Design the sequence.
């Protein structure tokens, strides 16, 4: 009985260490792609190591990234929530983290209206009357960019390795919140 308890305890400790190692690797990868950003990654997967060994899957991964700058665009936060991630088990044996697929990933990016005005070249004299809380944005795909129109403000944001899809947008408390869902792996997680 004592042997079973010791083995179970060792498996739980190893599971915890493996989750923290994976979270740290993914966070470092994101921060390397976006210098000056800070990433916090959380893996939610019960019995992480046994699940990886048997199926190579992780239930959920959430990355919360702050201070993301991509060219002239500065996002206060970018949140990526990926579900049913399939990892490359051979890479794990070489102490590498490689994703093969995700069933879905939801990305929510937040930038202040002031940042959007500045990056879009509107300056401080723009008419902000149509940017009230709750206003919905028109969001459509372009060649390598996302076209966004919200109230009197129209601008484009380039696709990047954290925001690889087109979805919806709205104004919330002085921020523009962009949300999209993809079935592809966001490159920043790769």
Sequence:
């Amino acid at each position: 009985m004592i042997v079973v308890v010791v083995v179970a305890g060792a498996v739980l400790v190893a599971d915890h260490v493996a989750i923290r190692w994976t979270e740290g690797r993914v966070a470092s990868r994101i921060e390397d792609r976006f210098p000056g950003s800070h990433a916090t990654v959380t893996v939610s997967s019960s019995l992480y190591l046994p699940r990886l060994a048997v199926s190579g899957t992780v239930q959920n991964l959430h990355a919360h990234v702050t201070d993301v700058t991509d060219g002239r665009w500065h996002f206060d936060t970018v949140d990526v929530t990926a579900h049913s991630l399939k990892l490359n088990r051979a890479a794990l044996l070489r102490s590498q983290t490689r994703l093969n697929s995700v069933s879905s990933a939801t990305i929510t990016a937040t930038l202040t209206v002031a940042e959007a005005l500045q990056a879009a070249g509107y300056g401080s004299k723009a008419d902000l009357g149509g940017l009230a809380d709750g206003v919905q944005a028109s969001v459509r795909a372009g060649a390598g960019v996302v076209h966004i129109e919200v109230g009197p403000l129209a601008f484009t944001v380039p696709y990047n390795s954290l925001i690889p899809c087109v979805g919806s947008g709205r104004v919330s408390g002085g921020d523009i919140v962009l949300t999209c869902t993809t079935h592809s792996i966001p490159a920043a997680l790769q």
Remarks:
- Residues 2-33 form the longest helix (32 residues).
- Helices lie at 2-33, 48-55, 89-93, 113-119.
- The chain has a mean pLDDT of 82.
- Residues 102 and 184 are 6 Å apart (CA to CA).
